[in-house]
Amino acid sequence: MSDPDFSWHGANASLTMPVDQTAGPWLQPSIVLCLLAILLLASSLIANILITISILCFPKLRTNFNFYLLNIAVSDIIFSVSSLGNFCPLTYYGYYPFSSGACTAWLYSEFMFSAMTEWTMAMVALDRLVCISWPMFYRKYQSSKYSVIIIAMVWIWLHLLILPSILLDRATLPDDAASERCSIDYHAHPGWLITCVILVFWLPETVTITAYIRIALKMRSRKKFVDTPSSNSLDSDFRQGKNEEQPLRLEGIAKSQTNYAVDTLSTSMRQRRPNKDRKAFRLLSALVLSVIVFCLPADIYYFVAALDSKWATHVFYQLATFSTFIHCFLNPLLYHAYSEDMRNAVKSLFHRSS
Question: What integer is the mean pLDDT of 281-297?
Fold first, then answer.
């Protein structure tokens, strides 16, 4: 199909960028889009590398929550590198200049690591929901090893969904078409692709939003209750006047002082825990909002293309792709903005290098 701006044959097949004869060489649409993509992806690459190094180098950051963020950062790094080497040449030349094998690798990267980010966000939301809803269970059974196992299971799950779809599509594509285009043929296996898109992209979005709403409701209900420190036995005796009626015993005083110290420590821990949960909730809120705003266009694009490829215009594709680039760039900024420990770790990296 064609539109006033682009000649778009099939779904993501080949494109012809318009050339403005009155504009200078640096103002051509293809060059402008390439420069924007390079700026976003290079910034995303550097920022996510800093986050990855910080989590790996500082033991304080190796928490369950941060292991999920590490997985997102690694996925964004690989996605950025792959897009720099493939999306920019495609946009500049107007066709895919590399081999069919390189195209297959890019399609794998584009689907796999976009989906990995969304599925990891779902795991983050579920992790926070368990922490808020069943704190004793969470502290007893959750560990870094548990988080790594969950992440590994997500990797296996996504490979089982994505790899067959891509390999099946590339295997049934004629050789001449495989060398000229770099996209999924949505006409060939629509039922399989629709199912895959729902499971890969829409299911984690639904899980993330549902878990976040549950967390928000529980956090709101917590504000209605104010934890008051329980009184120790010595304070209780003074309030009831028992100290005037009973003889003073040294062992009773020692026991009361011990109870007071334990109670004070318990109160301090109870006060720190909600504060820590609130900070994690603020970061989670920012991450969920980022996923909804910047990943939803790509999710809609893939679903619409699977339903009817004529709707998958190039303008739609560019919007969805650049939204994903912005999301990759925004994630590490949110980690840095909402996590004091992350900020201190990044600062320490620069202090070490200086």
Answer: 93
Question: What is the DSSP secondary-structure string of 269-331?
Answer: HHHHHHHHHHHHHHHHHHHHHHHHHHHHHHHHHHHHHHH-GGG--HHHHHHHHHHHHHHHHHH
Q: pTM of the predicted model, to two decimals?
A: 0.78
210, part of any domain? yes
Is 327 within a domain?
A: yes
DSSP state letter for 229: P
Q: Which residues contact 25 (CB under 8 A, 6 or more apart)?
A: 31
Could you tell me which residue, 313 or 45, shows the higher pLDDT? Answer: 45
Residue 247 lies in a domain: no
Q: Residue 2 falls within a domain, yes or no? A: no
Q: 213: domain range?
A: 7-18+26-239+252-353
Report which of residues 140 and 83 the model is more confident about: 83
- Cα separation, 62 vs 56, in Å, equals 7
Number of domains in the chain: 1
